[in-house]
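SAMPLE LOG
Freezer: B-3
Tube label: C17
Construct: single chain, 356 aa
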Amino acid sequence: MSLEYITGQFAIDGEFCGAETWGSGHINDTYRAAYQHHGAVIHYVHQRINHHVFRNPEAMMDNIARVTAHLKKKLGPRAARHGLTLVPTRDGAAFCRDEDGNYWRTYHCIEGTRSYDTIQTTQQAFEAARAFGEFQRLLADFPPPRLLETIPDFHHTPKRFAALERAIGADAVHRAVNAKMEIQFALEHKPLCNILLDANLPERVTHNDTKINNVLLDEKTNKAVCVIDLDTVMPGLALYDFGDMVRTATCRAAEDERDLGKIHMEMELFEALASGYLTATNGFLTPTERSLLVASGTLITFEIGVRFLTDYLQGDVYFKVHRDGHNLDRCRTQFRLVESIAAQEPEMNRVVANLA
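STRUCTURE (predicted):
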């Protein structure tokens, strides 16, 4: 199925001029397409949704349509640049399907922006956290009905840990012997699993993939412009998002770094994250949520480490791997980062207290 045919299914005025692959995402196929309209070139973003990962794309697109409409209402005149805008099909739907059964959607392209795969500066950390905080705040009054859980129990850490325990017991591919230290670490830290679930925190609309590359920054000012990639927007806890920011943005080393001496939480990056997030969520978060900001970083980092370890023990059935022991390497970086965060928790809590 040609991309030109797909572009003709959406309500776009102009002549299709061509397209290029776009972004660094690993799940959906994304293209930036150019159209000639009254002498000007206008860009749109077309995406083929991976319906093997997102098993209910119709419901996911309903989530996205409702969320973007709510954000447009709240943002007012700022919406064209500071919120994603879905382009409907010529029949008025939020997506179309091709003859091969693939699902496609289209967004207006937000010009003059770029994204980064890793945090380069404290300013970027501040801006990303501020953007995700504002995203949560704008959706605080999101009306019923409740959004679909696109990935049920995504951050239900006790269930993630139960899956690990089953994988340890089964030892299906006889790898437990290679992961004795990591298994012991996980078992010793099992009490972490219920930190947020036992705190009776309010349910929010959350993003659930708060990496820096899901925020568009202005090319000239480096200010945050728009939060993107709404596939995992669903009900959750606000601290799931902040915790994953701590996990992904406070350590400059790669997620699969083998030299564990490079794995440490950088306080200046944490302070920038906390400052940006609390700037946007002032008056929105409850005192209990604020008190657990640091703990959320420890929890989500531990949870992802548990998931990597589980996948390693099961034979690498979920995460893509590129070498032997890849998931075990990923697990080790997460568990080392847990240790680094835990060692600095008193100072991190003082940072949060001062900012709050």
